[in-house]
Design goal:
Largest sheet of chain B: 2 strands, antiparallel
Largest sheet of chain A: 7 strands, mixed
Strand content of chain A: 15-25%
Distance between the termini of chain B: 28 Å
Number of helices of chain B: 16
Number of strands of chain A: 22
Shape of chain A: elongated
Number of strands of chain B: 7
Shape of chain B: globular
Order of helices and strands of chain B: HHEHHHEHEEHHHEHHHEEHHHH
Oligomer: heterotrimer
Structural class of chain B: mainly alpha
Radius of gyration of chain A: 33 Å
Chain lengths: ~675, ~575, ~190
């Protein structure tokens, strides 16, 4: 499926149709048990239905009113079910597409004797090794142990451009259901059938095994508690009414109860949760649990890798700075020579800069003339031996050591230039020839556009950003300043990252980070929100609680926003639901007792026509508001990067005060309409 | 309403505002076990008490043990009070030779005083011996108040502490509350009251020869007793159990406007101070003031309504002058004393029910419907407007937790209160605490209202006002208030038992989830505040808290109230009587 | 278990301290500093207690200023059974009683509305005061019965007016018992 397909319209016809059917299926009381608020409404509806049938049989008066109340009570339940079904429907539609990707594949399993046998993919077990050739589907999740291939992963990412997967390193993981486009690879299977990534994805988007999240559980307790309070208020109202010689019918009492209990949020709660997950999926992020989505909203500290997240992945050579007595072109020449075999983006950018600035064309060097020295962790230099020239480039420390083996220490000037570059956020790369330092290549980090604004927004929400980089502190500080992050961790080793996370957590903070490498795995597991890149290793993907299919580390910020949006939507609708009750009292209480106490009509401030029309209007409003709020539940409250104080003020005004006022208007309008239609 | 009336209310409030900080800071020192100026005298007494009772003052308790110790102490002292009433006739300090008290009334009274309710289904001056009054009732006034303060401190510690299992030592908190907070102030307060004319003696009742004999009646029996010592703790500990039936309207309990001001001040002082203690101990002083502001706002809403309604008087009465003037305070004077007039009566009624005091200087039953709605509603909001000593603070903190939980989500984070995340367990405990209230009040009141034999037969007023009497009785019991729409004859088996149970439920069933919540909060990590933190220190928060209190309370009780005071008010305007 | 022992011991220790020592100490001090006030400010005449300055008494003879109606005890002003009427504002009994009182009082001072405190019961049933308006309402009757001039009676009323404490606390009231005793002293009624 393409990205366009993923953004389903809210009222997609197919989804609506399926949701309509599901709303009736969900009437099953066992299903309803999960939602105590709506269960109470259903029980109330059953009660009124039975009484209605009895009244019809005995031909009692007021059947019209009783019938309408009963119908609207059922609608209330159905509308809530419909909301949930709508939210699930979007996931189900996506799951269907995923299932199509999970076609029956025949795998070629490698036998110990080196031959292969054909087995159906579902028979594969962990640690089996399979061979996949161009054009074949990868039969299960695994790790490439031999070969390199381009893989079409559009089935899960929606991205049609193929990606390169190769044995060893951080790009070795492959996903079942994706297709090899070229070459042949050997894959060690890493998951048993039914536990594959695509299986998990189907389960997730379908919401089949959706666990209630901690906050949802807490909210459910609140709603159940309020329901009991209102149940008490209504049940005991009958004795008080009898004392006052104004006993009520069950229809009226059930109506009052249903109007008071928080049906709006009760009906929409699970839809909000499902829709939150769904929004993540639309951003191509898979959350392994709803808990992670909530945690994302709570994050206090974002750990962002500099490279690829804050800066463009590649540093670029920007300038050659020769040392005193060295000619610029001499430096450029040496730099280019030393980088010819360097296939890293930095290396390529040096060749390009030399070509553009000094007209030095890239040279094809025969292997016998040149000996390339690859970068190693020990020397921390790379270079070339060519025609008796020994050219080295590397970090300043390494080059200093290299230069001093000749007996002459490196000139002070070198250090000065290096530090100047570092301070301005660049990465200095020193070039030396035959133990003589020539000059410095200025590699520049390019900060991605718009990052500063994003960080400002995060800061306004009280989220601290920490940039993680392997650079030295000077360089790190300069980039941190340019990008506008709050803090940075320089010369970071994996264990430093881990220590930082633990330190933040010890202060009670929640930490989010992204990672892809195997050495990121412990930190990903430790972080409260760990987003693993889909291109990353299997270990990283298993350690994190989210996977970004686009492998875009910047998306962490969106993940946080979605988490916040989810929580905000819940809070807004809870507040709205409770605030609604005020108006309902003013509709129903005078209607109930104005026969016994005509003076109570003073409370009928909406001027509702008759007691019946008043009660009916309240019940209808209560049912319709669920439908009216489905879009809000599915799309979420509009997210704004504001401080908690301003968000609270805003949302309290809209959903709190609005929640008090809206039903007064709504109930009055419905009253006018049903009176005009002669329904009450 | 008169300017002078508002001035008196304002002066009262100014006094409370002024005492909040010094008293709150003092209490924070006391419960942090820091040095205070009273230490030279009180530390030796404290150490002696621990030695006598085997308390290790350095030992900390988890919430479960804290609750257990509190329950054991309450049970033991309640049993003692019950027994004392059952045998008082054979004990000293009984000059009037008052008889032993029958079991259901003795149970009701024991429950009543142990729970800091001080509901009185008996007429004290013809029932209770001086010994029972001072060693039984006034004693419970002290310790039930001390328990309340200790519990509030435990709750504050739960909020303030991070990743700790314990909430303090119940015995130490209770003892320090008694010695440092209650006793010194009562000693001074009692003498101030005597200076105004509150009696303090062990004389038998005096008999006066009437100046103008009324037929057969030629004498007036004047009840006496050690009143001032009990009056001081009755107010200071928000107990409210009168030495006499007429409570603080009795000239020997509350002889002058100044004694009246002292008593009202004593009701609010500790509870107001505790809001400052909350701020101090949690390091969020502004939050303490935000809570104070919410309480103050609700107080002003109450007093304005009550004063307005009472000053307007009763429209059904004709031929009378109810207009305030230089020579009379006018208004609805039924059940009110001339020396207090309308303003001080409405103020006292508001304060005594804001707090869970229950002392009265006027008869709430005779208030106008809306004037009477204020005390009733105050109790139904579970007395969190300053509230009972300790109980008011932990009561409003439960609402704070709920307000933070409901609205906190709207800032896009899991709700957190002063850095503590509010999770399922916390909401469960808060809701349990919240549920006990309507459950107890509404169920018992509902049964009483449709039971002519034992329920409605005891009413003094018919029609909606009768329903108000029933609602008030169970609200007062459950809310541990103790004031009454006193027309109801509650000294019956049914009411003694059910109100007794309501008092025990309203105290202990609410305390246990509250302590569980405190224990759970104390174990949590504290998230440091940031711009994204839900603000609990702003006027906006105060508004939110007030709205949650009013909406939750109103939603729960509005249907019942609509058939009581609300409809009665409308009927009174239509001049209908019952 | 240890807590139970502590609970019992704590009950005993605190009962002694708070239930006995504290009230006895307060009594001791009060009896020394405020002996008059601590004992109820009794009014003694010829060795016989005739009332307390703080406790109201019933008066029905027309030559006396009347106190407010009282619900304390069957006959009212029973200082051994203080109580209010506890009648609600819509209670027919209250409305009827006030109506009867109003009619009675209107007969003696026609055309004037009755000050509300004069026809309503107090909270304690022992209210020692009536409002200045209620006293003024009765001045003509008392003056007539006592054979005094209204001005003279008014002057006595003024003398027994207890104003607001510190000028703003509480309400002004007239102490009925003390006023009536002063009336008796000034111009005794023929019995």
């Amino acid at each position: 499926m393409s990205k366009a397909e993923k953004k389903l319209a809210i009222w997609n016809a197919q989804i609506v149709t399926r949701a309509l059917v599901d709303s009736f299926k969900k009437l099953n009381p066992i299903t309803m048990m999960k939602n105590p608020v709506m269960l109470v409404v259903e029980v109330g509806s059953v009660m009124t239905t039975i009484l209605l049938i009895r009244d019809m049989a005995t031909g009692a008066a007021g059947i019209g009113f009783a019938l309408q109340i009963t119908l609207w009570l059922w609608f209330t339940v159905l509308f809530a079910n419909f909301a949930e079904a709508m939210a699930e429907g979007r996931g189900k539609a996506q799951a269907d597409n995923l299932r199509k990707a999970k076609t029956e594949t025949i795998a070629r399993r490698l036998l110990p004797n080196g031959t292969t046998e054909e087995v159906p993919a579902p028979k594969l077990r962990r640690d089996d090794v399979v061979v996949v050739s161009a054009g074949e589907f990868i039969p299960g999740d695994g790790e490439i142990i031999e070969g390199v291939a381009s893989v079409d992963e559009s089935a899960i990412t929606g991205e049609s451009a193929p990606v390169i997967r190769e044995a060893g390193g951080d790009r070795s993981a492959v996903t079942g259901g994706t297709r090899v486009l070229s070459d042949q690879i050997k894959i060690r299977i890493t998951s048993n059938p039914g536990e594959t990534f695509i299986d998990r994805m189907i389960t997730l988007v379908e919401g089949a095994e959706r666990q209630k999240t901690p906050n949802e559980i807490a909210l459910n307790i609140l709603l159940a508690g309020l329901t009991i309070v209102f149940l008490l208020a209504v049940v005991t109202l009958q004795p008080f009414a009898i004392y006052s010689s104004a006993p009520q019918t069950i229809f009226v009492l059930v109506s009052l109860l249903v109007c008071l209990i928080p049906t709006t949020i009760g009906g929409l709660l699970s839809a909000i949760g499902i829709a939150g997950m769904d929004r993540l999926i639309q951003h191509n992020v898979l959350a392994m649990s709803g808990r992670a989505v909530e945690a994302a909203g709570d994050v206090n500290t974002l750990l962002l890798d500099k490279t690829g997240t804050i800066t463009l992945g590649n540093r670029q050579a920007a300038e050659f700075i020769p040392l005193h007595g060295v000619d610029q072109s001499e430096l450029a020449d040496a730099a280019q020579l030393s980088s010819l075999a360097d296939e890293t983006p930095e290396g390529r950018s040096i060749v390009v800069l030399a070509k553009e600035k000094y007209g030095l064309r890239g040279r094809e060097l025969a292997a016998h003339e040149a000996h390339f020295i690859p970068f190693t962790a020990q020397t921390r230099m790379s270079g070339i031996n060519y025609n008796g020239r020994e050219i080295r480039k590397g970090a300043v420390d390494a080059i200093e050591r290299y230069v001093s083996t000749n007996g002459t220490p490196a000139p002070k000037e070198m250090r000065e230039v290096v530090e100047r570059i570092a301070k301005s956020g660049g990465t200095p790369l020193v070039v030396a020839e035959n133990h003589r330092p020539l000059g410095i290549i200025y590699l520049k980090d390019i900060v991605k556009g718009g990052m500063k604004e994003r960080f400002d927004q995060l800061r306004a929400m009280g989220i601290r950003t920490v940039m993680i980089t392997g650079d030295n502190p000077l360089t790190a500080a300069a980039i941190a300043r340019e990008a506008g992050v709050d803090d940075f961790l320089a010369e970071a080793k994996p264990e430093d990252k881990m220590a930082l996370i633990k330190r933040e957590q010890a202060e009670g903070k929640l930490v989010a980070m992204t990672g892809d490498g195997t050495n990121d795995a412990p930190a990903l597991a430790q972080a409260d929100v760990g987003v693993a890149m889909n291109t990353g290793t299997q270990a990283a993907k298993e350690a994190g609680n989210m996977v970004d299919l686009d492998s875009n580390p910047t998306k962490l910020i969106e993940v946080v926003e979605i988490g916040k949006q989810l929580l905000m939507t819940r809070g807004a609708l809870t507040t709205f639901s409770i605030a609604n009750d005020v108006a309902k009292y003013f509709a129903i209480i005078p209607a109930m007792f104005s026969a016994a106490f005509p003076v109570l009509n003073a409370l009928n401030i909406m001027g509702l026509a008759t007691p019946q029309s008043a009660i009916l209007s309240a019940v209808i409003f209560n049912a319709l508001i669920i439908i009216a709020l489905i879009p809000l539940a599915l799309t979420g409250v509009k997210y704004r990067p504001l401080s908690a104080a301003s968000l609270l003020r805003r949302n309290l005004l809209v959903y709190g005060l609005g929640g008090v006022i809206v039903p007064f208007i709504g109930i009055k309008l419905i009253d006018v309409v049903i009176v005009a239609l002669g329904l009450a | 309403m008169t300017l002078n009336g508002w001035l008196q209310i304002l002066v009262f409030f100014a006094l409370i505002l002024a005492v909040t900080k010094p008293l709150g800071a003092f209490m924070a020192r006391v419960f942090n076990r820091e040095r205070t100026w009273l230490d030279p005298i009180l530390r030796p007494v404290e150490r002696l008490m621990y030695r006598l009772t085997g308390v290790d003052e350095t030992r900390e308790m988890r919430w479960t043990e804290y609750a257990l110790a509190m329950l054991l102490f309450s049970v033991v002292s309640m049993v003692v009070l019950y027994l004392l009433q059952r045998v008082q006739t054979w004990l000293p300090f009984n000059p009037q030779k008052l008889a032993n008290i029958e079991p259901s009334s003795a149970f009701n009274t024991a429950a009543s005083f142990t729970t800091n309710t001080n509901w009185q289904s008996y007429v004290p001056e013809v029932t209770m011996s001086y010994l029972t009054q001072m060693a039984g009732l006034a004693y419970q006034n002290f310790v039930s108040a001390a328990v309340g303060i200790a519990l509030a401190i435990a709750f504050i510690r739960g909020i303030a502490r991070r990743e700790r299992d314990t909430l303090g030592n119940f015995w130490v908190d209770m003892t320090r509350a008694t010695l440092w907070v209650l006793l010194p102030f009562c000693l001074v307060g009692a003498l101030l009251l005597v200076s105004q004319g509150v009696v303090q003696n062990f004389k038998p009742y005096d008999t006066a020869k009437l100046v103008d004999p009324q037929g057969q009646v030629t004498e007036q029996v004047i009840a006496q007793g050690p009143v001032a010592s009990q009056e001081a703790i009755k107010m200071w500990g928000t107990n409210g159990g009168g030495f006499f039936n007429a409570n603080s309207s009795h000239p020997f309990e509350n002889p002058t406007p100044l004694s009246n001001l002292l008593e009202m001040f004593a009701i609010f002082a500790i509870s107001a101070g505790l809001t400052y203690t909350l701020g101090k101990m949690t390091g969020a002083q502004k939050h303490g003031w935000a809570v104070f502001a919410a309480m103050a706002l609700l107080f002003w809403i109450g007093i304005a309504t009550a004063y307005w309604a009472e000053a307007k008087g009763n429209p059904i009465l004709t031929g009378v002058d109810q207009v305030a003037s230089a020579t009379q305070s006018g208004g609805n004077m039924e059940g009110k004393e001339v020396r207090f007039g309308i303003a001080n009566s409405a103020l006292f009624a508001t304060i005594t029910t804001n707090a869970s005091c229950g002392a009265v200087n006027s008869m709430h039953d005779s208030f106008t419907p809306l004037g009477g709605l204020v005390p009733l509603a105050n109790i139904m909001l579970s007395e969190v407007i300053f509230g009972g000593v300790g109980a008011g603070l932990y009561g409003i903190l439960i609402y704070v937790v709920l307000a933070v939980f409901i609205a906190g989500l709207m800032v896009g984070r899991t709700p957190e209160y002063l850095g503590k995340k509010i999770e399922a367990y916390d909401v469960k405990m808060a809701m349990l605490n919240l549920l006990i209230f309507p459950l107890t009040i509404l169920v018992f009141a509902a049964i009483s209202s449709v039971s002519p034999d034992f329920g409605t037969s005891q009413l003094n007023n018919a029609g909606p006002h009768g329903l108000s009497e029933i609602l008030y009785a169970f609200s007062s019991g459950t809310g541990n208030n103790g004031s009454a729409f006193a027309g109801i004859s509650a000294n019956t088996y049914w009411y003694n038992t059910t109100i007794g149970i309501a008092m025990l439920f309203g105290r202990f069933l609410m305390i246990i989830p509250m302590l569980a919540l405190a224990g759970n909060l104390g174990r949590k990590k504290t998230v440091p505040p940031s711009l994204g933190t839900f603000p609990v220190t702003t006027p906006l928060f105060t508004t939110l808290l007030v709205s949650v209190i009013i909406i939750v309370g109103a939603l729960t009780f509005f249907p019942a109230l609509s058939l009581g005071p609300i409809v009665e008010h409308l009927l009174m305007q239509a001049r209908q009587t019952f | 278990m240890k807590n139970l022992v502590t609970a019992i011991l704590m009950t005993i220790v605190t009962t002694v301290l708070l239930g006995l020592v504290y009230p006895l100490v307060v009594t001791g001090i009060a009896q020394v500093i405020f002996p008059e006030k601590a004992n109820g400010q009794l009014i003694v005449k010829d060795g016989q207690v005739i009332g307390s300055q703080l406790i109201g008494q019933p008066f029905s003879s027309p030559g006396y200023f009347r106190s407010r109606p009282s619900a304390a005890g069957a006959a009212g002003y029973d200082a051994g059974a203080s109580s209010g009427s506890n009648l609600g504002p819509t209670n027919k009994k209250l409305i009827d009683r006030v109506k009867a009182d109003v009619e009675k009082l209107q007969a003696e001072n026609p055309g004037k509305p009755i000050p509300i405190d004069l026809v309503t019961t107090s909270a304690s049933g022992l209210d020692p005061h009536i409002s200045p308006a209620a006293a003024e309402f009765q001045v003509p009757r008392v003056a007539k019965e006592r054979g005094m001039s209204e001005a003279e009676v008014r002057q006595l009323v003024q003398a027994h007016m207890q104003g607001r404490q510190f000028g703003f606390l509480g309400e002004t009231g007239v102490n009925v018992l003390e006023l009536n005793l002063a009336l008796d002293a000034r111009s005794p009624m023929k019995k």
